[in-house]
Amino acid sequence: MLIVLTGIDGSGKTTAARALVESARAEGRSALLLSNHAGRRQLSLLAEKVGFTMPPRVADFIETGVRLFTVLVNHARAGRADSLVVMDRHLHCQLALRESKGLKRGRLLQWLLRMLPAPDLAVHFDVDPRRAHQRVMARGTDKETLADLQAFRDAYRALPELSGFVVVDANGTPDEVLTRLNRLIDAKELTCV
């Protein structure tokens, strides 16, 4: 079973993905976590360190290249796995980032989304941007403005692809979100039997 998780920074995607894989393994099931990061955090930290503001199109070019590479490699890995496969982020994330920055969607990402195997379950973590901002600031590894998080959330909500996702309220604790996610997976497994 292939599961894809999306959401803004601070929505709890990575925390939930790790917990989901750990809980499946604790139950004796095989599970694989695949991360489809774009290097955005590293780029923003590097730009801040050297005092350079990267133009949005340049940042998008680099991030899209990194994300495309990781998604393609991880789909190849997922295709060989006979287990629960959880993908933390996907190409939808890049489409939402582009939308939030006022950049065009382009054709490549949309074409690839049609060509790649569809996930068995696509879940979008929806969270109040203020809550997400608190989480991002608490982890202290990157910086996001509240305005950027709100724009990112709005961009996700504007994606036509989001209609194929199950939207989960991610404002609760990690345990609450994991419980919701496990219920979705159980329901999906029952319909596949």
TrEMBL record:
Protein name per the record: Thymidylate kinase
GO molecular function: dTMP kinase activity
Keyword Transferase recorded: yes
Keywords: ATP-binding, Kinase, Nucleotide-binding, Transferase
Transmembrane region(s): none
Species assigned in the record: Paenarthrobacter histidinolovorans
Pfam family, one: Thymidylate_kin
Similarity comment: family membership: Belongs to the thymidylate kinase family.
InterPro entries assigned: P-loop_NTPase (IPR027417), Thymidylate_kin-like_dom (IPR039430)
Residue ranges annotated for the Thymidylate kinase-like domain, each copy included: 7-178
